[in-house]
Write a structure and sequence with these properties.
Structural class: alpha/beta
Number of strands: 16
Low-confidence stretches: none
CATH architecture: Alpha-Beta Barrel
Oligomer: single chain
Largest sheet: 12 strands, mixed
Amino acid sequence: MKTVRKTTSRCHKCAKEVEGAIVISEGRAYIHRECPEHGVYQYLLSEHGEDYADLDRFYAEVYETASPGRKMHTWITSTTQCQQKCPYCTTDCARDEDEILWEDMNWDDLQEVLHTFERGKLSFSGGEPTLHPNMLEFFREAEKRGVSVQLATNGLKMASKEYCQKLKDSHVKEVRLSLESVTKPDAAKLGLEMHVETKLQAIQNLCDAGISVLLSPTIFKGVNEEQLYHIIEYAKDKPGIHALSVEGFSWNGSGVRMPAEMMIAPDEMMDTIFRHYCKGRRCDLFAIQKLAYAIMNVAGFDLCLKSEFMVFLRRAGNLHPLTDFIHAGRLGWMLDLWRKVIPKQRWIRGLLLLPVLASGVTFRTLPLLPVLLRLVLANRKKLDVHLYPSELLVVALNTNCSTLNADSIVIPHCISSFIFKRDGVVIHQEGVAPVLLDKEEENCRSGFWQRMQDHKWQGPESCKKD
């Protein structure tokens, strides 16, 4: 076993902080930790040990020498009400009513949020935010103040064309819609087949209304990895779907009743994309990730190592990955050179990055430069997905922090903030990761973990009962 770097992680049994390390073992990369009480646990990060270790070193060197950056967006837990009650819910909507950790916000709370975060990108979420009585009013007020807001929803109410028109009239510009599957048989693996047709109708209605859609499927290792491919294929000829934000199942919240082995890392999900769409070398995809980390760092954003990206070009009814249009090998080499000389001043980092970007350009890249520039400009300040060029499909692969993949080097650079209400107070937490990890330690200490694991997931039928 080869150690790449040391870190601090969490024990998978008691959720307490323990010493850990990123290691390579038998050609794979893991996060390894050892609890004095509960022993050793390893979580798979990548099947491509050495390439992933190089990406890890790149990330650590770039972000450890950088000042803390801006968060990409802020999640608002407006309500804990939800119609789905998914057993793997990160916000614990599947808890019993007397165990719910967060409180519903009132209109005064939401106005306070808008006043405080006028310059940021907000995700109005829950629970299911369409069940909040002030949801439409919130978007109308946000439009008046010039605040960029995304609606993060299960989409069930959007099966009504009339409701989609209400969203449009209330200045909802983009909707992040959770989609477990595009077919009933695949959704049945999770016991959620009853929602498929409703959600597909919702997507069509939103596109017809001119509201940009960002699909957000959840991928479970050993259950539905191929669903990632099916959803990308579903989106390829629908220009109203501007992006996918794919969530790897994260073993936390109510999801601890499900097997920990179902938790999947972004690089494992990227293997599915590579298998179906890429013709070159697997290591070329690591150059794309390095480029994303470098650009976001220069732009002043934090970015999590547990996020990976691919950009597809829509052309003649097919999808073509960005790696088809650049010289990824040369780009990766120049990025490694860039990280060895990067100064602390961000503007100088940006200047030095320009020749690096130029090194990846080929004759096939040149026609794409205008559309790629539009993508960069849409992300420059507020990550406005509704401004993404329809010629592109952007895919982000993310896995939330849990006790299984906790890494103290990465946690301070969590891409999101979190606003919630507890004990009558609206709280803003810089970084979702610390909230999730502290919550898991509290869940373990209170006995919630044990109660969940006493009622372990028994397959799709147990989802239906819940």
